[in-house]
Specification:
Number of strands: 12
Keywords: DNA-binding, Transcription, Transcription regulation
Number of helices: 10
Strand content: 15-25%
Protein name: LysR family transcriptional regulator
Mean pLDDT: 87
Order of helices and strands: HHHEEHEHEHEEEEEHEHEEHH
Pfam family, one: HTH_1
Helix content: 40-55%
Largest sheet: 5 strands, mixed
Shape: flat
Oligomer: single chain
Organism: Paractinoplanes globisporus
Family: Belongs to the LysR transcriptional regulatory family.
Amino acid sequence: MDLDLRKLRYFAAVADKLHFGRAADELHIAQPVLSRQIRALEKELGTPLLTRDSHGVALTDAGRQLLTDAGPLLASAHAVRRRVTVAAHGSRRLMVGFRAGIAVTPAVRRFAIRHPDVLVDLRRIEGDDQAAMLLDGRIDVGYVRLPIDEAGLRVTSLYTEPRVAVLPAGHRLAGKDRIAEADLAGEPVLWHADTSTQPTKRPHPDAGYRVRGVDETLEQVAAGRGISFLARSATVFYSHPEVSYVPIPDLAPDQVCLAVAESRTSPLVDDFLSAAQATSEITAECGNYEMWRLEGDAASKHG
């Protein structure tokens, strides 16, 4: 039996809202029609997906599993439609996403030697949308940073790079040539995800702000709301007069990876992945240069 993507989309809307009326409004269909479609899906799968009683709507165990699997399936279908539309217009195009601080140009140049007729578009992505943009086809290939939800993705390690501490300019440790993680013990950290994903041996207190992207991180640090950590390559492209970057060698390194949707099979994508892997050392060197500059500046101050 083939799974009906339309019914699956209806189910995902109900599961998200846990309310048939609001889901029907979002889908622009009548509520009785939505209810019939959900019952038909349950019959096709041979199991209840939702419980409905006076207390509201809840997911069964089977419903929770289907919701987990539905996201990549629906995103993949959307990506297919997007790629067909692009192909219908006769364009050969590859959309490459990249996180802040990652140099993509070496791979683009190498790829262009083999595919001079393909337009490579570049788009910066953030940690909270890197997986979604790959799954729904907004980008074909992603230079991502871990952690990432790998469901529905093929993720290949590319290289690691050290991190730096991001401190307010007036911080007691600003301007040091290097510091240890223990020097910052107990200081609140501005982070983009759960504290368990911090690159420290022990989680720091949460500063109470969820930051999205390097720009926002620097502004919040400059405002004195906490400290943070960045991959050293990000410091090549971002600076702030009220922020100090200090190397912190014993911090867990940042992991840079290549990622594509599992459903994405294309000779162009494979060739770009090969170009990215062949130029990974050049990409990593962008971060090395900045680390040498940081350490050299600090040494000159103490010399």
